Amino acid sequence: MFSTGARALFRREILRFVRRPKNTFLPPAITNVLYFAVFGIVLGGRIDRIAGFDYILFILPGLIVLGTISNAFENASFSIFHGRWNEYIHETLTSPLSYLEMVVAYVAASAVRGLIVGAIIAAIGALFTPVTVEHALYLVVTMGVISVLFAGFGIIGGLWARDFDDLTVMNQFILRPLVFFGAVFYSLEMLTPTWRQVSRLNPMVYMVDSVRYGFLGYSDLVPLTSLGVLVGLTAVVLTIDVTLFKRGFGLTD
User: Fold this and answer.
1) Which residue, 227, 187, 224, is CA-closest to 207?
2) pLDDT reported for residue 1
3) Gap between the Cα atoms of 211 and 143, Å rounded
4) What does residue 241 show for φ and ψ, rounded to 5 degrees?
5) Residue of 14, 42, 150, 179 with fewest CB within 10 Å of its CB?
6) Residue 162 DSSP code
7) Which of 191, 230, 190, 232 is nearest to 208 (CA)?
8) Are the beta carbons of 10 and 4 closer than 8 angstroms?
9) Residues of the chain under the 70 pLDDT cut
10) What is the pLDDT of residue 4?
11) Alpha carbons 136 and 214: distance in angstroms, whole number
12) Backbone phi and psi for residue 219, each to the nearest 5 degrees, phi listed first
């Protein structure tokens, strides 16, 4: 069980984005309405079914992944960086919380935001196409893992960033391109063998494929292997987070 202080920090981080729904929940909702309208309806009507699924249904898991990890990353990175920028993070650092409790509080709150956005996107998708869940437990575990993973990445980004532009660069020019090349809009089976192997170097492929398996029961990879890769990567990232907090990286500059 974590201390009262850790729960208070978690609650503060939750309230920080819940109190501003127009900034946190409305933009991804509008963006995904456009995604579904353009890619699902306009282009989907001109594209053959992929792996036996309507195109709009096939891309749904990828869009959920994109929204979930983008918001988990953004929440953690902004919260850490904003605390550094305005120097109120020192209050957290001088509290009796352990470094593990600090990291868990920031990561858990950011993961919650990512999961909420993912649920919103799923609900929007259900307005455009019937949505089924073939492997509910696998899907829940996978969504939890990827949201925690990118919340952990967000902490690293928030500690590394030197100005607000760095946060934008990481999210818009590194994270999103990797997702779009992570088999969101296509199946790996559509690629040549060479590019299929190259795609396996992109961690986003494992996330999109895992969530797609949870929803549709279809996978280009081995589902348990993909989940194992994601769990291992998450453990490494969280360990790095705690280590950076202990060393004061970016916190004592």
Assistant:
1) 227
2) 56
3) 7
4) -55, -50
5) 42
6) S
7) 230
8) no
9) 1, 40-46, 252-253
10) 85
11) 6
12) -145, 140
Closest to 220 measured CA to CA, from 100, 61, 13: 61
CA distances to 33, 113, 125, 137, 249 from 120, rounded to whole Å, are: 11, 11, 9, 19, 35
Q: For residues 114 and 148, is the Cβ–Cβ distance under 8 A?
A: no
Confidence at residue 175, expressed as pLDDT on a 0 to 100 scale: 77
How many Å apart are CA 226 and CA 134, to the nearest integer? 17
Strand partners, 50: 53
Cα angle for residues 192, 196, 198 (degrees, 5° grid): 120
Separation of alpha carbons 233 and 151, rounded Å: 12
Token pair for 199: 């795609």
Token pair of 189 as six digits: 């089976």
| Structure tokens, 143 | 């969504």
d(CA 179, CA 66): 6
The residue written with tokens 């920028």 in the block is 85
Distance CA 243, CA 102 (A): 12
DSSP state of 45: G
To the nearest 10 degrees (0 to 180), the angle between helices 203-216 and 136-160 is 150
In Å, what is the CA distance from 245 to each residue of 155, 161, 232, 238? 10, 15, 20, 11
Per-residue pLDDT at 199: 84
Sequence letter at residue 243: T
Global pTM reads 0.91
Query: Where do the H-state alpha helices sit in 19-135?
Result: 21-24, 26-35, 55-85, 89-93, 99-128
H or E element, residue 148: helix 136-160
